Every structure is written in structure tokens, then in C-alpha cells.
């Protein structure tokens, strides 16, 4: 099964999913899209055999609600490390912010924060940073799909935005870059992920089951009949033919009674099977 899980601020993603598994007597759990401990919001969680399908989930784009404060600086670009106040700064106006956001929208390269999960020769960047080791991070290709200014408080020099970005974009770096355009620095004070792919966070419920698998996957879901599932369960072959797919070419996920039982690729009905959940297939056939 698949769930929306609300990760609270101050927790690691690993801690959040393990707590969820323990509280709900789940043996195996996994997730896609790690959140920093200082961030909160949506994680997509899979349980038991469905953890094998996590790599297929449509999670290229993510959306965030962000609050940040200008004229403050930290090594992590948030409140997770020591924060210093910048002295003798120039007040930023709303017109400057609007201009800066237009520049930021065009950004296609980004250097991740040194306090990130990026690996340098097998070691996480944040571990090297904590040990005061010198290293550099390469710029990533990114895309800002949408950036909306919700509020700018000129008195408090704070900003609230909603931003939809490509996978691998660091929001903390985005805020840091925005501040640099305005000739200052800033720290993120609230970072909440509200959307992954087509899956939206509805509120702050601890978890919610995802029942519509079409929202999770950007791949054709092929609903098997009782006869089809017998064909798929044939352990002696990694290929088969389905008449109902004779006009379709592309990747497919096999579904039976709203359960994922495998995936493969169809070439006009001739199917190459990449993965089958034999334990689940056996259980469903015998039920």
C-alpha cells in the first residue's frame, strides 16, 4: 500500500517512516523524496512488497511553501546551524523582490548547500561540513516550474513564496540565491513540502492512504483479468502476450484488484516482464 505521510519538523525522514511502521505494525517500509530535518510536510511511503515500486513513482516535480527572513546568514541557509544577523544592510523593497524573483525563475543551475545529503567520495556533505572538512559541490541542472509570491513584508524584511521545482532542487539554496540577487543573505524559517508529482498534501493528518494509483505513476496501469493473472504467474517465462494490449507500446504496471503485481513493457501486446511479485500473485490467485 501507499500513503501520504506528514513528516514533522525536527524529525529525520528515516525516523518518521520507522515510527509510522512501528505504530501501524508494518514489517517493511520505504519512501521517496527525503526531507531535511528542519523541513516538514509530504513524504510518499510504500509498505511491504509495494516498496519495490517506489522507483516508478512520478516524483520529478515537487512543490513547497516557504517562509524566509532577509539579512540573516547561516552555513545551512536555515535555522539548523548558527545564525548571524547582517549589519548595515539596505532595506529591500517589494519592487526589488518582484524583479529578483523574475531573475530567479530563469535559473537553470544551482549549487547545493554544503549541509546537504549530497555524497562526496561516499560521505554525505553535511557530515564533512560538521567536521570542518574543505570540499566543493558541483552545480546541478534545475528547473523552476512555477514561483508565486504570496507575501512580502517590507517592515520585517520577510517573504512567503510557493514554488514548484524539478527533482534535486534545494529550496534553501534558492532562497540564498534570491537574497544574493538583492545583495544580502537570508535564512529559511519554514519549509513545507505540499506536493510530489500529482500527490498533494491535504492537511496535517499524520498519514492518509493513497487509493488512486493513477496519481502515483506516470505509466500505463494495465488491469489484469483472472485469466491474465494466471498468464503473468507463469514462472518459466519472462514474456507473454496480452490481446488487450495489441495497440499499445510502452511501459506498463500490472494491476489486479488494485494491487501492483509487477511491471514490464508492451510492444503491440508482446510483453517483456521486468518484475513480478510472486508472493502476491500466489495469494491473489488462491483467494
Automatic annotation (TrEMBL):
Domain Pseudouridine synthase II N-terminal, chain residue ranges per copy: 25-171
Gene3D superfamilies per the UniProt record, alphabetical: Pseudouridine synthase
Keyword RNA-binding carried by entry: no
Keyword field: Isomerase, tRNA processing
Record GO terms (molecular function): RNA binding; tRNA pseudouridine(55) synthase activity
E.C. number(s) listed in UniProt: 5.4.99.25
Coiled coil: none
Gene Ontology biological process terms in this record: mRNA pseudouridine synthesis; tRNA modification
Reaction catalysis annotation: uridine(55) in tRNA = pseudouridine(55) in tRNA
Broadest EC class assigned to this enzyme: isomerase
Record-linked Pfam families: TruB_N
Domain of life: Bacteria
Family note: Belongs to the pseudouridine synthase TruB family. Type 1 subfamily.
The name this protein goes by in its record: tRNA pseudouridine(55) synthase
This protein's encoding gene: truB
Amino acid at each position: 500500500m501507499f500513503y501520504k505521510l506528514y513528516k514533522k519538523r525536527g524529525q529525520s525522514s528515516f525516523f518518521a517512516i520507522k515510527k509510522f511502521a512501528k505504530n501501524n505494525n508494518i514489517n517493511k517500509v520505504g519512501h521517496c523524496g527525503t526531507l531535511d530535518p528542519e523541513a516538514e510536510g509530504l513524504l510518499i511511503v510504500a509498505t511491504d512488497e509495494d516498496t519495490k515500486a517506489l522507483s516508478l513513482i512520478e516524483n520529478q516535480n515537487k512543490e513547497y511553501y516557504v517562509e524566509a527572513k532577509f539579512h540573516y546568514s547561516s552555513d545551512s541557509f536555515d535555522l539548523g546551524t548558527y545564525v548571524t544577523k547582517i549589519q548595515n544592510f539596505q532595506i529591500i523593497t517589494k519592487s526589488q523582490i518582484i524583479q529578483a524573483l523574475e531573475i530567479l525563475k530563469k535559473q537553470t543551475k544551482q549549487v547545493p548547500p554544503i549541509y546537504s545529503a549530497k555524497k562526496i567520495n561516499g560521505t554525505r556533505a553535511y557530515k564533512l561540513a560538521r567536521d570542518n572538512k574543505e570540499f566543493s559541490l558541483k552545480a546541478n541542472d534545475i528547473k523552476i516550474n512555477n514561483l508565486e509570491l504570496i507575501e512580502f513584508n517590507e517592515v520585517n524584511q520577510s517573504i512567503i513564496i510557493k514554488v514548484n521545482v524539478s527533482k534535486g532542487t534545494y529550496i534553501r539554496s534558492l532562497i540564498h540565491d534570491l537574497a544574493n540577487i538583492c545583495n544580502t543573505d537570508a535564512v529559511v524559517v519554514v519549509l513545507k513540502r505540499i506536493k510530489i508529482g500529482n500527490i498533494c498534501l491535504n492537511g496535517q493528518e499524520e498519514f492518509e492512504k493513497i487509493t488512486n494509483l493513477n496519481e502515483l505513476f506516470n505509466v500505463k496501469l494495465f488491469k489484469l483479468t483472472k485469466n491474465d493473472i494466471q498468464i503473468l504467474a507463469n514462472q518459466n517465462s519472462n514474456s507473454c502476450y496480452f490481446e488487450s494490449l495489441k495497440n499499445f507500446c510502452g511501459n506498463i504496471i500490472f494491476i489486479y484488484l488494485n494491487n501492483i503485481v509487477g511491471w514490464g513493457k508492451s510492444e503491440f501486446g508482446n510483453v517483456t516482464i521486468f518484475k513480478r511479485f510472486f508472493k502476491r500473485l500466489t495469494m491473489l490467485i488462491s483467494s
